[in-house]
Amino acid sequence: MLAPPGDLDIAELTAALANGWDISDPTFDYLAVGFGSHHWSVTDRDERRWFGTVDEHRHGASSIADLRGAFATASALHRAAGLSFVVAPIADSLGDIIRVLGGGAFTVAVTPWLDAAPLSESGRVPAEDQSEVLRMLGQLHRATPHIDASLPLPIDLSLPDKDDLRAALDDVDTPWASGPYGESTRALLRSDAARLADALARYDHLVECVVSESTPWVVTHGEPHAANVLRGADGALHLIDWDTVRLAPRERDLGMVIESRTDLEPYRAEIGDVPISAAALRLFRMRWDLGEIATYVSQFHAPHEDDPNTRESWQNLGDYLPVHADHLAPVSD
To answer: If you write DSSP's letter for every residue of 86-132 in order, what string do you get?
Structure first.
């Protein structure tokens, strides 16, 4: 995100950091990294440094519970399963992994500050790092039996914001007075309405195929792309951003790293000769593109303002509409 939320009470955030994590007299340096959460470099009066993350919760208590469960899973992976590459949030003085702010509008989490840099700012893992990342994912998936079965939430394979996207598709013939990007979004959506409707139908068919498969699900990160994999000054890899961790088909992670199923030797060296589903790979690649489209279309179909974050959302939507991604193109299975 390019700017912090205007309605976040910095005094309340400061008190939460002091009371929860003993971060006294913090100074904040807003970091315009990632998209979806707000991040700061937080330094206390003794020059100790942390990475602070604030999430907004438009779905209220349910999204807070989901985030708490995801971060608790990451903590268990780091501590109980011994995965040192998992950068998990630090529990506060009461043992909680997050603190609620603004009456439930926001949560804050604190993670260690790392002397590390992403493999790339976005996109697929570079070829020279792919084997190492696949070995890391093999270790993550192999740790599934060591995690309390009540912790990792199973993924809902239905497309997030699908109903909002369908509602927007049904509304493309009526002007959108929702805000500065409403009419521009409607024009993009109208030009691709038929292809998107077809892609949604094919996605639903793939969900049926994947649900019918018998391969056990594993703990998955969800977004192991190059920006979420950091390499430290000592050369070690770190996997960050665990809000999307879910119990899911392993292809949820693998599809973001591999080009084809022939690239899996480093992964199988960690976890064995497990079957890889072509349907699941395609499902999760489609899910990413359709999910991004649905998120941004939903944002602009609803009332919105012109600010740095909505401008970034508009630029991001242009990466997906008009539809051009191979992941959304029909194929014969």
So the answer is: B-PPPP-TTS-S-EEEGGGTEEEEEEE--SEEESSSSSSPPGGGHHH
Q: Enter the DSSP assignment of 301.
A: H
Asked if the model's pLDDT at residue 11 lies above 90, the reply is yes
Q: Which two tokens stand for residue 208?
A: 């049926």
CA pair distance 277, 250, nearest whole angstrom: 9
Peptide bond into 322 cis (omega under 30): yes
At residue 42, φ and ψ (nearest 5 deg) are -115, 125
In three-state secondary structure terms, 65 is: helix
The DSSP H or E segment spanning 205 is helix 193-212
- Over the stretch 253-273, which tens digit does the pLDDT of each residue have? 999 998 776 689 999 999 999
Tokens 């206390």 label which residue? 44
Task: Classify each residue of 258-284 as buried b or exposed e, where b means 16 or more C-beta atoms within 10 Å of its C-beta.
Answer: beeeeebebbeeebeeeebbebbbbbb
pLDDT at 285 over 60: yes
The domain locations on the chain are 1-113, 162-216+275-327
Above 80 in pLDDT, residue 215? yes
Enter the CATH code of domain 1-113.
3.30.200.20
Sign of the alpha-carbon dihedral angle for 126, 34, 283, 70: positive
Residue 251: CB atoms within 10 Å: 24
- Give the C-alpha separation, 287 to 207, whole Å: 10
Looking at residue 331, its pLDDT comes to 59
CA dihedral 112, 62, 3, 239 (to 10 degrees): 30
Q: What is the pLDDT of residues 290-319, one digit of tens each?
A: 999 999 999 999 999 999 889 999 999 998
Instruction: Specify which residues 296 forms β-bridges with.
Output: none
Partners of 50 in the β-ladder? 42, 112
Res. 286 pLDDT band, cuts 50 70 90: very high
159 with 291: CB under 8 angstroms?
yes
Phi/psi for 57 (5° steps) reads -130, 85
